[in-house]
Amino acid sequence: QAKRKAAFGSVGRRIPYRILHLINQDGESLGNMHRAEALRLMDEQGLKLVLLHENVEPPVYKLMTGQQIHEEQLKRAEKKKASPKPGVVQKELTFSSAIAKNDFETKTKQIALWIEKKHHVKVTIRQAK
Predict the structure, then answer these.
(1) Model confidence over 69-94: pLDDT tens digits?
(2) Class of 90-126 per CATH?
(3) What is the CATH number of domain 19-82?
């Protein structure tokens, strides 16, 4: 869980930078400002400050609601799930619904071999004419 928060950036009042670039919850840039001013805006609007880009000068922070933070974390988790993991090989086979018995047996043997080798296997079945 610590890694997931680190990937999304810090949330809340701890800001190690004196000057930061602030974006409001609608995505509009509020420009560069001192962290005290950003914290005052955060308190006034009842929002949280989230670090978006740390490797730029000044770092970019965004004011977000708790709901927006949650949705963004879900999006990033989905994207991470969808991307293939390094070292994992994905194999894909397409079957026709009118496949002959011996072809089917050959393909199932091939799938069994791939699974033994810890490959991810994706099987697609097409409907024959």
Answers:
(1) 888 888 888 888 777 667 677 888 88
(2) alpha beta
(3) 3.10.20.80
pLDDT > 90 fraction of the chain, expressed in percent and rounded: 9
| Single-letter code of the amino acid located at 22 | L
Domain range list for the chain: 19-82, 90-126
**In terms of C-beta distances under 8 Å and separation of at least 24 residues, what long-range contacts does 47-55 make, across chains too?**
48/11, 48/12, 49/10, 49/11, 49/12, 49/13, 49/15, 50/8, 50/9, 50/10, 50/11, 51/9, 51/10, 51/11, 52/9, 52/23, 54/9
At position 84, the amino acid (one-letter code) is P
